[in-house]
Design goal:
Length: 231
Amino acid sequence: MEKICSHCKNSFDISLFQKHVNTKDGLGSWCKNCIRDKSAEKRREKGIEPRRIGIDSEKQKIRLKNYKKNKASTFIYTITEKVCSHCQISKSAKEFRKRIVCKDGYSNKCKKCERIISKESYQNYRNKNWAKALIYHAKHHSKTEILIDENFVLELFEKQNGLCYWFKVKLQPSSEPKYPWQPSLDRLDRNKGYEPENVVLACYSANIGRNTASAEIFNMFVIDLKMALKD
């Protein structure tokens, strides 16, 4: 849905309007861009320097750093215990990192919870961006030019129905090192680089097991392995 801004008379998506409880449609009459420009104009009229990006942002970082440093030198820590906002357990103040921007001078989460959250965040990022990680790994280990990208890897995953090219097991992205079902890029011809017609997705165990063996020899091994498992 779209709405016309009463100030600039342009039509925008409703997401560019602020919510307003006193209007019929529940939205403000001015778009967010006009409100921001008007606010900047008022600041200039009052002689207040507007926020800028670039060089001034570096000055702001320096001022903030000096502010934190000066506050830390005069701040008086008064608490000995605090309740972690994540695990809801009361712990000694030593179990929290000092964070001068907080009212009591300590982080709202204990050190243990912060480590857990950081680890989970990293794992979620790796699982979500596994295709990007494969391209990054290939670029840092290949002596030839990489002719594939992240989109190609995702399309290849769909083309293979999410299965390993060799073992036909379900590929499972994971942040765990050397995870057997972890997707990996495998070159059919080891003498060629990472080219669209030369790359397949294989599970980590198949890729490592194949090593430098040719595609023909390893395919024979896979057939033999399947027959042995049936017996």
